[in-house]
Amino acid sequence: MGTTRITHPILRRATLAVLLLGALSAQAQEREAEPASAQPAYRDTSLGFEERAADLVSRMTLEEKAAQMQNDAPAIERLGLPAYDWWNEALHGVARAGGATVFPQAIGMAASFDVPLMGEVATAISDEARAKHHEFLRRGQHGRYQGLTFWSPNINIFRDPRWGRGQETYGEDPFLTARMGVTFVEGLQGDDPTWRKLDATAKHFAVHSGPEADRHHFDVHPSERDLWETYLPAFQTLVQEADVAAVMGAYNRVYGESASASEFLLEDILRERWGFDGYVMSDCWAIRDIYTTHGITDTPEEAAALGVKNGTELNCGNTYAAHLPVAVRKGLITEAELDEALTRLFVARMRLGMFDPPERVRWAQTPHSVNQSPQHDALALKMAQESIVLLKNDGLLPLSRDMKRLAVVGPTADDTMALLGNYYGTPAAPVTVLAGIRAALPETEVVYARGTDLVEGRDDPSATPLIEPQFLRPEPGSSERGLRGEYFRDRDLQGEPVLVRVDPQIAFRWDRGSPTDTLMARGEAGPDNAVPDDDFAIRWSGQLLPPVSGRYRIEAAADDGMRLYVDGKLVLNHWEDAERLRADSATLDLEAGRAYDIRLEYYDHERDAAVRLAWEQPGAKPPFEAALDAARNADAVVFVGGLTGDVEGEEMKVDYPGFAGGDRTDIRLPETQRKLLEALHATGKPVVLVLTTGSALAVDWAKANLPAILVAWYPGQRGGDAVADVLFGDANPAGRLPVTFYSADTTLPPFDDYAMAGRTYRYFEGEPLYAFGHGLSYTHFDYADLRIDRERLAADGEATVSVEVRNAGTRAGDEVVQLYLRPVDPQRERARRELRGFERIHLAPGETRTVSFRIRPDRDLRHWDADADRYAVDPGEYEIEVGASSADVRVSGTIEVEGGAAGG
Predict the structure, then answer these.
(1) Is 648 an active-site residue?
(2) 867 labelled catalytic
(3) Looking at 567, 583, 605, which one is the last position of a domain?
């Protein structure tokens, strides 16, 4: 195929320049000598990707070239070039493209400390991405979230628990982040030597972790030590070990330069030092920030030229398309520089097989049936089980299945959003924690009470209980339960519906795609009756059957328009677009034994779509009191609370007590939940705390007073089943914290200070609430016989460290064996200790296994030598610590290391 890769950046640039000149010359000769029907070089599959890409670029006008350098590249019909949008997301499943398997959020997958399992998940995600892409092509669709270039993973270091996007990362440690990131990238990009399966994107390069409200204008000046020892290592590993296809710049400045137009980051480090030969893209509208919020340039054409000159080939936004032609005409940049950048982009597309016959591309054969397959659903359950961290257990867990009554309380117990985090797809059948517990206890009465809102002052449309199926029927006399749903291709509910079915409950929340893929996965919709991505409508109709007589509050919530009729009377009417899920209610006097006609009409305009139908029955107690009643009458209480993606996330526009713009100003559990948790404990019933969260929570009171605490993170579509499996002992927990949990009274450094001093287990000098790497099990493990195969080691040498680990308990379980290194007498300021090896192993009761790690000083003991402008290894004695967490070292030994250079 002629696909030999040139990796050195200078040689590669020279080669591309030669190819471009050759393409221009060949184009001129071709026009004179060849007939119009001759195949252009970019269609010739016998040529290499670079030559073909250069030929294609040479045929474009200046304006066409600029337009192809933005994420939503338009079609060029005269060249047979279809439209392509580079914007796709796959953080923990294919996101925003309709139905897809939703795995635990990235921070949860990191908590598994299971690299092989992460590889299986990434492979499943890339299978679904390929399948969905080719299905979109069969439908003639080329839009956003339908392509093969994915903007994942996020390998920023989660340096501060207040950052709302920390949930997208693999935690606070550079080594764990690198190992998880490499495996994720390899799973996305595949193992074919010719064609990439997908393009992965390492983001956000390189010093970026909040605050969200300031990200468009702040300037970070980290110390050289922090830059090279904390912020850069994971990116370097993904570039040099995983051959990641793309890198995304950040919004903020670094040392005065826009991270999305930084000569230092993108040219000096990424291409010259590390030899990166992929493409760089800006974060969305970050090029616009260069001349607006940052004020680095005065005009948009100067910003566009600066971005391309300093190494950013692709602009998420429209600055390049609108202003690069002007920049060329003003002499700010040459057209040849655009050609070089654009050629790199088309090489990437060609390597994905977009310009070759599908039958020749291995990945194009991926069947659509892999999407939301049973195998992927089972994998989502396994990863959710492995991600759960048991923080504390005084013997209450596993819970007995012989209970007569169990109370499940809390604002995230029955909330689908508590499963999803952010950047998610639409799961086919998400299982909340409440649903998982009920399925696990068919003989036990499980009483549910929400108890309180997630946070104070939040108008929560999910607070009101849904109308359950037994109180709905699609038509008089029907034995079915639910309402008749009629799905329409437009928002006007006109003509014949393209799909008719009975929906047991009205509780839908689709992502930025549409219900199309979800319905197709169920076999209910196909090319002839698929609901469109946007501008669709649904009418639900049937009868409402009140269980008791009295005054009901009936609530409908929607994003966007909704109308509710009861017995032909319009009782709620909001038939207009909404920015987010909006609820309204009506009070009605209803009689038991009567059937009331009910009709709910809903339309979605664009992007996110959601609708629900709920009610509050007569005599309902206030939520807080109802929760306490449920606890008093139960044998035990499971409180499910914490956070959701509705309050922590990316640059959010809503603020609540303890939250600001998606970040947190208070690392404690929200006050509404703390009050309820303390009141539940006061009933005298045993309380298990299950936390849904994307970040560390200061649960000091719970640690001191409750017998058991679990962290479920945002556990994905099977999260409820996974939590139930752990609660009742069907799964033995072994997740580990990828972040430090701090105490509520810990004084953290200012959030906008990027110095690492006082942060993470590597530099925090205080006593953590729960340490990095912490996690308990229903069994226990003994460590013994640490062996180091040599006493002295050269800087470029290698040693093997071995330890015996035995399951000393009575049930099988997993242990995460962790290796940390630290200098005994440091010659300079260093991290307190650093993770440099881990392995998750499964042991039967009484079983012993030898676990081995290889250590290399020039990789594992290096520090940044600013004077030499490179990494170096200090000579001296180093301690090797092996144990169950960063604060639970079981065995240790020392090794003498010679000093030396360690590359750069």
Answers:
(1) yes
(2) no
(3) 605
